Amino acid sequence: MELSARDGLRLSALEWPGPAGRTPILCLSGICRTARDFTALAARHASRRRIVALDYAGHGDSARATDPRRYAPEALIRDVLDMMAALNLHRVALVGTSFGGLAAMAMGVMRPASLAAVALNDIGPVIEHVGREAVVDFIGRDPAFASLDEAVAWLRVHHPPLPLLDEAGWRDFAERGYEPGADGRLHPRWDIRVGQQAVGAAAGRPPDLWPFFGSLSRLPLMLVWGEESRLLSAATVAAMRHARPDMGVVALPGTGHAPTLGEPAAAAALDAFLEAVP
Question: Any idea where the AB hydrolase-1 domain is (predicted)?
Fold first, then answer.
């Protein structure tokens, strides 16, 4: 489906209908991923929940902005809140990967009544500098692959480790992230200018996010953590656990930023977490 942002930019979302009586699930992707990341989750829950996955401006099927400053974090989060209002998503169980989890924490401050539960995917209130720089570098590249096989080979080398992906899994991952352009080559399904604005130097120094994490204190909370993540450290996870002893944590050995949520342990824990939300 398509919606219009307050400045007229076209925004896109995927929706799977479900019963009106249960809390819907809102899925927010990472900054170099898209709504398609959540198709497997939706397939498991669509008969029991309404599910909506949003594409930020400059991502997936949403329009690209003329001015890259349109991709500033506050603008993307404002879009999320506006799209929620337009789609009558007044209170949701939110699944947020990376930047999507940061958006969830911001919503905990800006619109706390909109959240019924939050699942964070490889993100917390401290973002390691080395991981942030790696994300910016990855987002800013357009390798212009000649084929899907070339894309898969490149991702296996340059993407953080995803050890549970087999060959079919890597091909699916590549197809979700890249699509043919007018030149017949495969290009990112995001505007490569996004990184500098959303998480790079143009975004400025990250604020103290611990108060944002604290805004989730009243909510059911779980965390999926790739133990090899360069963005979310073991020390930060330990501090999050200390602050929220009731937070469920799924640690994925050998996995980098960010897990796909299709890993068996992550999928099982996430399904149980969401099923517990009325």
Answer: 25-269
